[in-house]
Amino acid sequence: MTQARFITLEGSEGVGKTTNLEYIKTLLSAQGIDFIVTREPGGTALGEQLRELLLGHKHDGMADETELLMMFAARAEHLDKVIKPALANGQWVLCDRFTDATYAYQGGGRGIDFERIRILEDYVQGDCRPDLTLLLDAPIEIGRERANQRSAPDRFEKEQTDFFNKVREAYLSRAKSDPQRMKIINAALDLDAVKSQISDQIKLFFSHSDS
Ligand code: T5A
Predict the structure, then answer these.
(1) Which domains does the chain have, with CATH numbers?
(2) Which CA distances in Å does 96 have to 20, 34, 61?
């Protein structure tokens, strides 16, 4: 596997992204792949500050457009300082959320026109897109229940069920329109069953990356 690959992990609140990221790390390491792990919003010093502003409650009620532009501001920094240099250096990038989250949360959840998001995506990312995206999908109640057990709700987690249903729908619709890249994982199952699906998809991806 010569060319570095960009893998992202997506899904609504509490579906198990962070948990399964650890598992994916073991799969990549077992193949001897040199990789970095990062996340959005965040991944750089500036991006992590923007994350605090976006997820914290200090600016409850910020305009939807402000939220959208801050996501892309953090992403521009992330691409410039972390993602593009790593890929250019031959390192794979494993990222907890990326632009599919913007389509799902700011597009689906907040109702911002997808076309506006696409324009920003082209502007900020150029032709940089993930090679593989694993979408962890589960009914909203399951994810929220899991997330609630863990920590106090952030600014997004305070949204209502309707918001998260729209987020989930937007994710699923993106996966449907780009099945080659975006693979749906049934995250409602127990952890072993989720890992087994992830392992299958990563193996398949490795075999395509080899050819
Ligand atoms: N956002 C982000 C946008 O609005 N636009 C954007 O463009 C971007 C990039 C980021 C927030 O920002 C928004 C989306 C988000 O609201 P985040 O921390 O990345 O926040 O996302 P969260 O979804 O809040 O992440 P969480 O850490 O809450 O959820 P995870 O990572 O999906 O879940 P995890 O792994 O922590 O698991 C939660 C609990 O469930 C258990 C785990 O042990 C843990 O206790 N669990 C399971 N239990 C049973 N069975 C399973 N299969 C389980 N899997 C996990």
Answers:
(1) 6-210 (3.40.50.300)
(2) 10, 17, 25
**pLDDT by position in tens, the chain (length 211):** 569 999 999 999 999 999 999 999 999 999 999 999 999 999 999 999 999 999 999 999 999 999 999 999 999 999 999 999 999 999 999 999 999 999 999 999 999 999 999 999 999 999 999 999 999 999 999 998 888 777 788 888 888 899 999 999 999 999 999 999 999 999 999 999 999 999 999 999 999 886 5
Binding site membership of 22 for ligand 1 (Cβ less than 6 Å): no
Tell the residue nearest (CA) to atom 7 of ligand 1: 102
Closest ligand 1 atom, CA of 21? 35
**Nearest-CA neighbor of 12 among 158, 159, 164?**
164
